[in-house]
Amino acid sequence: MLEAVKTQQTPVIEGAPRSARADVQLDARLAAAPAPMTGVTAPARADALARLKEQGLPGPRHEYWRYTDPAPFNAARPAPVALEAVAGDPKLFADVDKLRLVFVDGRFDAAASDDPALAGVEITTLAQADAQPGHWVAEAYGVLEAQGQKPVRRAFAALNTAVATDGAVIRVTGKADRPVQILYRPSDAGADVIVHHVLRLEEGAELTLLENGLLGARGNVVIEADLAPGAKLHHIAAPRAGVARIATTHLFARVAEAASLKSFELSVDGRHMRSESVVELAGDDAVAHVAAAVLGDGDNLRHDDTVFITHGALRGESRQVFKKVLKNGATGVFQGKILVRPGAQKTDGYQISQALLLDEDSQFLAKPELEIYADDVKCSHGSTTGALDETALFYLRSRGVPRERAIVLLVLSFLADALEEVEDEDLRAEIAGRLEDWLTAKAQG
Amino acid sequence: MAVLDAPEIEVREGVDRETVETVANMGSYKYGWDTEIEMEYAPKGINEDIVRLISQKNDEPEWMTEWRLAAFRRWQGMTEPRWAMLNYPEIDYQDQYYYARPKSMAVKPKSLDEVDPALLATYEKLGIPLKEQAILAGVEGADASPIQGRDDARRVAVDAVFDSVSVGTTFKDELAKAGVIFCSISEAIREHPELVKKYLGSVVPPSDNFFATLNSAVFSDGSFVYIPPGVRCPMELSTYFRINAENTGQFERTLIIADKGSHVSYLEGCTAPKRDTAQLHAAVVEIVVLEDAEVKYSTVQNWFPGDEEGKGGIYNFVTKRADCREARAKVMWTQVETGSAITWKYPSCILRGEESQGEFYSIAIANNAQQADTGTKMIHLGKNTRSRIVSKGISAGRAQNTYRGLVTMHPRATNSRNYTQCDSLLIGDQCGAHTVPYIEVKNTSSRVEHEATTSKVDEDQLFYCRARGMDEEEAVALVVNGFCREVLQALPMEFAMEAQSLVAISLEGSVG
């Protein structure tokens, strides 16, 4: 790691001055939240609570909330959802050979889960680890989240660290021979789920983490992933099939020398979604790819991807690929940032955000940022927004492809670059297949 | 550095002679001298009495005084914006003069012949002769220019602003024949109150932002332009701003109105002496563009950037905005920002009229301890509107250079287009280059494209130049000029030359 990494120059980004109303809101939010655990994670939780109280809940005038109203996340309790509409698990990953961990309303359900025995992987739950004196999670819990609060404050991540009810605690020492799946299930119509997963990948370890299912009426997920030199984490999140939902998710990752993080998210039909990725390339030759394919269909629907990638070492490679297809009044938001610290030479940073607006009512709001303090770097970003290519549509129709089918094909081809970020071919084919089914069903509906 | 003997330079295809020559003639900040002249100041600080005094010095009518006072009262309740990526000490708004004018200007000279020779000499030395028979400097030496012989193209009317007052305006009579009004804003307030009342503050309202509101309260002078319907302004218009007095802020206000079907090209230049203490400059430029009219506004900003350690220099907080109020109105901003210790400047276009067009071409160079946070806003409100942004940012030394921009397509701005290209070049490993674009697309038929790159000076290009016998600084200047080419080409002839040499000068000492 470089000396220069210490000289962070970015000021903390403050929001608008706090109002008395926001403080009342925070009190109400905390009063409704579960009581914090009292075991080994207690000091980290107390620290997170203090940070949250110091910064308060964000208001709409907060710079990083200019495009997404934080009100649904600030509310003390979510509005209940109709559970019968979402009965059953999603089909995605159903046929993949994996080790399944089920969380019901944010708590681990051992009976529904597979036996957490997997060669090269130690799996426990946050509740269990918390009760175990001397467990390594005490050293890891909340650490990357706390680091990720600078320069941008992330109130809902601090809240999560303070009061999370459970989560998976995974330490990988070798190459996991099959993926670990975290599956969410709701049982209570008003479930306000707060889960916190801690991942530690030791030197040269490899893991594929699948995450899907339905969180509840409102969800708040934090993943902290610490990758030792040469480790590889492949994270595929697709938790958002089904009815209207509200969720904030945060992925905090530290990527050491020659380690690699690849994170892909598929999102369909979230109602009010804020998905943040905060990644630090801390060692030389580290790699981080963060990608998402988002389908937004429906009024008041908002999907916000906020990404912050920090290059703190030599020859880092980062890629951000975000594709959003929006219709019927949906709003897509992308706030992406590449920060190259002084001395992080030979950085290769790339970022693309594209939106396909399928009708007049939808909108795309983007803020793709670069902040660069080293000269020998290659950084670029691109952002485009537009409608379907009429020429391509005409071409397909002239070849006898019905209009609805032609649109499905063009949307799939638009999303292809993001799907490419799923390295495993079988998983990619699985996701592409589900995506096509979903699009076809929508086109016919 | 080696000074090359110009005629001996072998100029190859693709390398133009001017570039090589200007590179050879590089020097440090050329405009850092001051004019010794007796000045009179308003008392230090700002309060209602100072606002009234400025109004009174300009012989303003009551309504104007009230307008200023309303702005001042509002300003007192505002806080200075700190969201830009700029790091500068607290500004003490009570520790500077808001009005300074040469004593000899106490009685308004009736013509340029009556102006204090010391002032005329100042502009002469700056290369801005205030004699109508003379041509604007910067064109000298442009013998190879393709427009040689076209005298019209060379003539530039100048409004010269010295600290808080306009010293004089050239070619006024000739412009008047064409119906063009070109005078200082203080004169316009007295002579053309109906136009000023109608348009002043209509693009940048007095409540717009902290610095614009401060300007609305204390602006002392600036330029006023009115181009009547269907008139193509017979010559280029320009304003040259010179800050001379110490501890004095300059607050100029420019108002340009291009009536239906008219056309004008306007140039703005600025310099200031070298001083150890930072000086405040908070200007407002408002442009109203009506149906089928076209305004081209070009700036070469060369305020004193402070010394290598970041001591002194101008703090430049500027609000510039053009309102394409009617159909097919067009505005083009071109800026070369090389000076100032702090630059906070976002020339913007409100594209209200259908099929109106906005363009923004910018070169921003920050060297040593300079900090620049600059960009544009393209606000698409009308149907079929078009905008284009080309921004080239260059950072060297320990400088920080940020592009900050907004492109917004409102739901009604259907079938609109935007293309944005922001490139940053880093010279050295101690500087920073940042890009903060905001893109908001609220309808489907519009297309928005944004591209940005950040890179260092290409080693292969440098090596090529070095292999052809250039020293490192020349080579860098040449490569940088190439990097900026698209913007340099958008500048009027008079400015392109100056800008090109400025690019080289600003980067002096950044390599090796």
TrEMBL record, chain A:
| Any Pfam family hit | SufBD_N
Per the UniProt entry, what are the Gene Ontology biological process annotations, in alphabetical order? iron-sulfur cluster assembly
Span of domain SUF system FeS cluster assembly SufBD N-terminal: 43-182
**InterPro entries from the entry?**
Fe-S_cluster_assembly_SufBD, SUF_FeS_clus_asmbl_SufBD_core, SUF_FeS_clus_asmbl_SufBD_sf, SufBD_N
Domain of life, per lineage: Bacteria
List, for all copies, the residue spans of the domain called SUF system FeS cluster assembly SufBD core.
191-414
Family that this chain belongs to: Belongs to the iron-sulfur cluster assembly SufBD family.
Question: Which protein is depicted?
Answer: Fe-S cluster assembly protein SufD
Q: Which organism is it from?
A: Paracoccus salipaludis
Lineage start: Bacteria, Pseudomonadati, Pseudomonadota, Alphaproteobacteria, Rhodobacterales
UniProtKB/TrEMBL annotation, chain B:
Q: Pfam families, from UniProt?
A: SUFBD_core (PF01458), SufBD_N (PF19295)
Q: Residue ranges of the SUF system FeS cluster assembly SufBD N-terminal domain?
A: 176-232
Ranges where the SUF system FeS cluster assembly SufBD core domain occurs: 241-483
Question: Source organism's superkingdom?
Answer: Bacteria
| Biological process terms in GO annotation | iron-sulfur cluster assembly
Query: Which family is it part of?
Result: Belongs to the iron-sulfur cluster assembly SufBD family.
Q: What is this protein called?
A: Fe-S cluster assembly protein SufB
User: Which source organism does the UniProt entry give?
Assistant: Paracoccus salipaludis
